[in-house]
């Protein structure tokens, strides 16, 4: 990976006019190979600003480089998204929880009296939903692995192409789409979960030890799974998806990103 200490002297000298003494320059760990040019992407903590510099140390004007900056910033955000969000979505504990929930639903199904046909339908809907959620989780894990592999390759080659940026961006939105579907499934089965929970709650006690045991197992899922009162989670992933349908220049934060570009105007 490229580090500040690895940069050639002419790059470091060219960089000096673009940051203050109280700022710490840092370089993205790979060069961007875009539209026939090779570029370094610099940041200056604590300032939330960037600079795009050519491989020869020259600094192009803002108007010439702003699209390169949007591409580099988007790729950088994809990496941050992978490390801070995508990796959490792929956590194995999520899968373990739903595999356990699947077993609990099977236990409830075989314990229910035969005449409770409506409640059995609720159980069937929940079982189908959990199976889909598990399937989506496997897809999430696969996508995260693909993104991590691309990240590892980038660190070795120290190079990012426009195609790399597009692929990472597409995978980022695929992850958000899967998460949206998972959240939507949870919210859409709120009533079925409540029906099962209320039935188990009405049967808990020493007279119905088996039902009481199932109630205790089911209760955490009733509490943890999303409901219509937590629609914000669904809207957050919807916002990510809508963002992915726009060209980089038309995204809501594009103006703000470019406002923090230090290349001369």
Explain this structure to me?
The protein has 265 residues and is of the alpha+beta class. The protein has a domain at 82-251. It is 65% helix and 11% strand. It contains nine helices and five strands. The protein has helices at 9-15, 62-89, 92-111, 117-157, 162-188, 190-203, 209-224, 231-243, 254-259, and strands at residues 24-27, 31-34, 37-45, 47-54, 159-161. Strands 1, 2, 3, 4 and 5 form a five-stranded mixed beta sheet that branches. A hairpin with a 1-residue loop joins strand 3 (37-45) and strand 4 (47-54). Helix 3 runs antiparallel to helix 4, helix 5 packs antiparallel against helix 8 and helix 6 (190-203) runs antiparallel to helix 7 (209-224). The mean pLDDT is 93.
Brief summary:
The protein contains 9 helices and 5 strands, in the order H-E-E-E-E-H-H-H-E-H-H-H-H-H. With 265 residues, the protein is α+β, with helices and mostly antiparallel strands. It has a domain of 170 residues.
Order of helices and strands: HEEEEHHHEHHHHH
N→C terminal distance: 30 Å
- If helices are DSSP runs of H or I spanning 4 or more residues, what is the number of helices? 9
Give the total of beta strands.
Answer: 5
Indicate the percent of residues in helices: 55-70%
Which class of secondary structure composition applies to the elements? alpha+beta
Quaternary organization: single chain
Mean pLDDT: 93
- Largest pleated sheet: 5 strands, mixed
Poorly predicted runs of 5 or more residues: none
Beta percentage is 5-15%
Q: What is the approximate shape?
A: elongated
Rg result: 25 Å
């Amino acid at each position: 990976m490229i580090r500040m200490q690895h940069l050639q002297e002419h790059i470091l000298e060219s960089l000096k006019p673009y940051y203050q003494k109280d700022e710490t320059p840092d370089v993205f760990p790979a060069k961007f190979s875009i539209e026939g040019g090779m570029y370094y992407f610099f940041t200056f903590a604590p300032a939330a600003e960037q600079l795009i510099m050519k491989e020869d140390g020259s600094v192009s004007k803002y108007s010439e480089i702003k699209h390169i900056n949007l591409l580099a910033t988007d790729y950088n955000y994809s990496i941050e998204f992978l490390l801070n969000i995508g990796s959490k979505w792929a956590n194995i504990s999520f899968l373990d929880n739903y595999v356990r929930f699947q077993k609990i639903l099977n236990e409830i199904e075989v314990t229910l009296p035969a005449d409770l046909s409506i409640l059995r339908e609720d159980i069937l809907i929940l079982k189908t939903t959990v199976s889909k959620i598990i399937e989506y989780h496997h897809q999430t894990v696969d996508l995260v692995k693909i993104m991590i592999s691309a990240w590892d390759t980038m660190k070795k080659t120290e190079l990012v192409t426009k195609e790399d940026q597009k692929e990472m961006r597409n995978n980022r939105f695929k992850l958000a789409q899967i998460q949206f579907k998972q959240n939507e499934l949870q919210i859409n089965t709120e009533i079925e979960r409540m029906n099962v929970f209320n039935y188990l709650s009405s049967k808990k006690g020493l007279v119905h030890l088996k039902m009481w045991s199932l109630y205790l197992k089911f209760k955490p899922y009733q509490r943890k799974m999303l409901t219509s009162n937590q629609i914000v989670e669904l809207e957050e992933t919807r916002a990510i998806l809508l963002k992915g349908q726009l060209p980089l220049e038309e995204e809501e934060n594009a103006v703000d990103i470019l406002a923090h570009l230090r290349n001369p105007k």
